[in-house]
Structures are given as structure tokens and as C-alpha cells.
């Protein structure tokens, strides 16, 4: 008879986890899951590999994942190198013409390609595009104070549905086009929310560098409703980069997204844990 060593007890636990995933796999078959991959959530090459593997696995089991990425820290690094000063207002970058050119170069050129390559290295079919491609995201100016920052007002989802049919994983850089062909910088969270809303996604996962939305005592709140978010924002508990995230969550839910989760993208297999196990991660936001 074969003995149960410590090692094969680990295998038994792995097999059990796989087996227990069945109801979740059934629930998400054919579902659309938009994943916002924030610049702070992107780690080293190994973390990128784990993220890409999870996304390819999602596609393999019948989910339609869409990646919308950020890259704020990478943009900051390039702006510093070029000695271009940059300010944020309520988590959004004040963007002039010189800045938007750098944003496009870094996001579409560097960050997007890195994610696409990681997905393709894992055997998936990742295709990179920005909101300018195929007029995916038409924008209007956000706040005049922010310059060339756009709010998506029209999302053409045809290209995304065509990609799902072709087994392609879309990887979207948050840039948009104005009605006169001008380029807009879109906050990554805002772009992800707009795409998720237009697709009526089943889930929007916002991957960041904190475990979730924290209360005044610094504890992660695991379930949040709209009224609570509004209160925490007016109290200043939700601040900085968390403002566009929670605003996005509320907006996406209003547009028909079933639920939004804000979670730590640096935690290994964060997306799989959230979707396919009973151990939901981060803060889950639903309609009131
Ligand atoms: N109530 C809050 N709970 C958690 N994080 C918060 C809160 N208020 C502000 N933050 C800040 O928001 C940051 C996440 O936003 P951001 O840096 O823009 O992330 P990303 O690059 O992933 O989009 C956190 O690292 C944290 O410093
Ligand atoms: C208007 C605006 O703020 N655009 C962002 C776009 C990138 C982004 O959102 O990156 P993270 O998700 O990593 O923060 C910026 O210029 O930094």
C-alpha cells in the first residue's frame, strides 16, 4: 500500500482545491471578467508570469478575460528622466501635450507589450490595443483643470466581442480619442470601469498594492455598499489613488456590472483565488 507522505498530502490538498473549484468554474463559464492591472500591482518578472498564467487559465476554462492596465509609476519614472514635472488632482494626472505623449509612449509602447508578451509566453493569445484602436474609447475632457484627461463617453465593444470569439485576450492601454482625433490620457481605473460597464461584465477586479479598501482604523472592509463609500470619501478615509477606484466601482455597478472587487494584485494567484475559491480576497462592492 502507498504511504501518505507529507509531500503527497500536499498533492491531495491540491487535488481537493481543484475539485472544489468545480461550482465556481461552472458559474464563470462564458462570463466576462475585466481585470484592471495597476502599475503598483505589477511586480517583477516572476509576478508578471504568475499573473499571466492565471489569466490564460481563466481563458482556458471558458472565461472571457479583458485586461485594462495602468502604469502610473512607469510614467512617473520616464517623466522624471525627461525632467517634466507632474501633478495629481484626486488621483488623476494633470496632463498637457508633452505629458500625454510620454504617457502614450510608456503605456502603449512598454507596459502593454510586456503584459501581452507574458500572456503569449504562457500559451495564451494576447493582443494589445489602446482605446484609440478601432475607436474603442471615445472621450470627452474630464475636468478642465486636468488638461488632456479624458472621460470615456462611447465604448465600441464590437472589437472586444470579435476578440472573444477568436480566443484572444484583449490587453487595453488606457488612452482614448477625442471626437476631433486628439489623444486623451485616461485613468486606468476609469478606463477599466467604462469597459466593464459597456460589456456588462460579470466581475470587475481592480488589482492594486493594498489588501483592499481600509477603514479609519486601517482594517480592510471586506464588503462595501455605495453609501458607505460616499461617507468614507467625504471623511477623507478614502483618499488619493483609492478615489478613482471606488468612484469607478460605483459607476460600473450603476451601469450593470454585477460586482467589483478591489484586491492586492501582488498576492500570488490573486485573481484565481477571488474567482475560483471560496476565499474571496479584498473588498467586494455591490449595489445598495
Ligand atoms: N481607504 C483606503 N484604503 C486603501 N488604500 C487607500 C485608501 N485611501 C488611499 N489609499 C491609497 O490608494 C493607493 C492605491 O491607489 P494607486 O496608488 O493609484 O494604485 P494603482 O497604481 O494600483 O492604481 C494605496 O496604495 C493607498 O496608498
Ligand atoms: C489620468 C491619469 O491619471 N492617467 C494615468 C494612467 C495610468 C494609470 O492609471 O496607472 P495606475 O493604474 O498604475 O495608477 C496616469 O497618467 O498615471
From TrEMBL:
<dbReference type="Pfam" id="PF00696">
    <property type="entry name" value="AA_kinase"/>
</dbReference>
<keyword id="KW-0028">Amino-acid biosynthesis</keyword>
<dbReference type="InterPro" id="IPR041727">
    <property type="entry name" value="NAGK-C"/>
</dbReference>
<feature type="site" description="Transition state stabilizer">
    <location>
        <position position="36"/>
    </location>
</feature>
<dbReference type="GO" id="GO:0005737">
    <property type="term" value="C:cytoplasm"/>
</dbReference>
<dbReference type="GO" id="GO:0003991">
    <property type="term" value="F:acetylglutamate kinase activity"/>
</dbReference>
<keyword id="KW-0963">Cytoplasm</keyword>
<feature type="binding site">
    <location>
        <position position="93"/>
    </location>
    <ligand>
        <name>substrate</name>
    </ligand>
</feature>
<dbReference type="InterPro" id="IPR001057">
    <property type="entry name" value="Glu/AcGlu_kinase"/>
</dbReference>
<keyword id="KW-0055">Arginine biosynthesis</keyword>
<dbReference type="InterPro" id="IPR004662">
    <property type="entry name" value="AcgluKinase_fam"/>
</dbReference>
<dbReference type="GO" id="GO:0042450">
    <property type="term" value="P:L-arginine biosynthetic process via ornithine"/>
</dbReference>
<protein>
    <recommendedName>
        <fullName>Acetylglutamate kinase</fullName>
        <ecNumber>2.7.2.8</ecNumber>
    </recommendedName>
</protein>
<keyword id="KW-0067">ATP-binding</keyword>
<dbReference type="InterPro" id="IPR001048">
    <property type="entry name" value="Asp/Glu/Uridylate_kinase"/>
</dbReference>
<feature type="domain" description="Aspartate/glutamate/uridylate kinase">
    <location>
        <begin position="32"/>
        <end position="263"/>
    </location>
</feature>
<comment type="similarity">
    <text>Belongs to the acetylglutamate kinase family. ArgB subfamily.</text>
</comment>
<keyword id="KW-0418">Kinase</keyword>
<feature type="binding site">
    <location>
        <begin position="71"/>
        <end position="72"/>
    </location>
    <ligand>
        <name>substrate</name>
    </ligand>
</feature>
<keyword id="KW-0547">Nucleotide-binding</keyword>
<dbReference type="GO" id="GO:0005524">
    <property type="term" value="F:ATP binding"/>
</dbReference>
<dbReference type="InterPro" id="IPR037528">
    <property type="entry name" value="ArgB"/>
</dbReference>
<comment type="pathway">
    <text>Amino-acid biosynthesis; L-arginine biosynthesis; N(2)-acetyl-L-ornithine from L-glutamate: step 2/4.</text>
</comment>
<feature type="binding site">
    <location>
        <position position="185"/>
    </location>
    <ligand>
        <name>substrate</name>
    </ligand>
</feature>
<comment type="function">
    <text>Catalyzes the ATP-dependent phosphorylation of N-acetyl-L-glutamate.</text>
</comment>
<dbReference type="InterPro" id="IPR036393">
    <property type="entry name" value="AceGlu_kinase-like_sf"/>
</dbReference>
<feature type="site" description="Transition state stabilizer">
    <location>
        <position position="245"/>
    </location>
</feature>
<keyword id="KW-0808">Transferase</keyword>
